[in-house]
Amino acid sequence: MFRNLLAKYYHLIPGIHELAQIRDSLYELRSNMGALQAHQFELALSAHARYGDPQRLLRYALQVCSQNGEDGMIQEVFRRIGTTDRIFVEIGVGNGSENNTAFLLSQGWTGFWIDGNPKFLKVIGDRKDLSRDCLQGLVSTVSRENVSALFQQLKVPEVFDLLSLDIDQNTYYAWEGLAGYRPRVVVVEYNASILPGVEWKVRYEPNRMADGTHNYGASLKALELLGRRLGYSLVGCDFIGVNAFFVRNDLTDGRFSAPFTSENHFEPPRLALTHRRGHRASILDRTGTEPREYQK
What we know:
The protein has helices spanning 2-9, 16-47, 70-81, 102-106, 119-125, 147-154, 171-176, 220-230, 262-265, and strands at residues 87-91, 110-115, 135-139, 162-165, 185-189, 232-237, 243-248. By secondary structure, it is an alpha/beta fold.
C-alpha cells in the first residue's frame, strides 16, 4: 500500500520532477552519442585498408534484429555461397526479438530455437504468422552431452544452412558436441578478452553458468582450431568482438578473406559501442515463404 501511495504522490516531492527530467536527458544524450559513435566508425571502416577489403564481412554489417550487425554479415555470407534449405538452428535466442535468426525468420526461413529461459515462447506464441510449421521452440539447458539428443528430438536435419550458438560459458563445448551435424555456416560467440594467438577455453562443467566476469567461453584461436577439426574455416568476426563466422571448407574457395586464422580476423572487445538503432527490436512480419534456389 505504501508503495502505491508513493507512486501516486512522488511527483509532488520537491526536486523529484527535475531529477526525472535530468535522468531522461542523460539517457537521450547517451543514446545520441552511441549513434554518433557508430556512424563515425562506419565512415572510418569504409576508408580503412583492412575493413574496406570487399572480401571481409565487416563492411556489410547491418542491424535489424541482431545485436551487433550480424544480420547484414549473415546475408552477405549467403549471397556468396547461396542457400539450400534455408533452415536455421539458434541456441541461445534471448527473448526471441533480438538474435541472429529472427530476421531470417521474417524472410521465409524455417528453423529451431533452443534456450534455457522460456520467455521467448511468449514472444512467438503471440504471433499468428509464426506457426509450428515455420518455427519450433524448445526450452532446455544445453551441454556437450545433450545437445545432439536435443537436435534429434527436434528432428533437425544433419545438413542445414545456418547454426548460431551463444550460451556464454560452454559455447565451445556445445559446438564440440555437434560433430555429427554439418551446417553450412556457423556463427559462434567467442571471448574477445583473450589475445588472438592464444588457445584457451574455460574448464568444462556441464551445469556451470557464466558469472559476469571474462572467465567464460573460449578464445577465437581455440574456436578456430575446433572449427578446423570439424571442417570449417574462420571467415570473419563482428566489430564489437562477440561473434565469429565460420563457413564449411567446401564452400570457402575464393569467396572470403584468407588466411582463415584468428590472427587475421580477430576483433577486440568493443562492447561500449553496442547500440540499438531506432526502434526497439521485434520479429518482422513473415513473408517470402518460397525457398530460394541454390546458386554457386
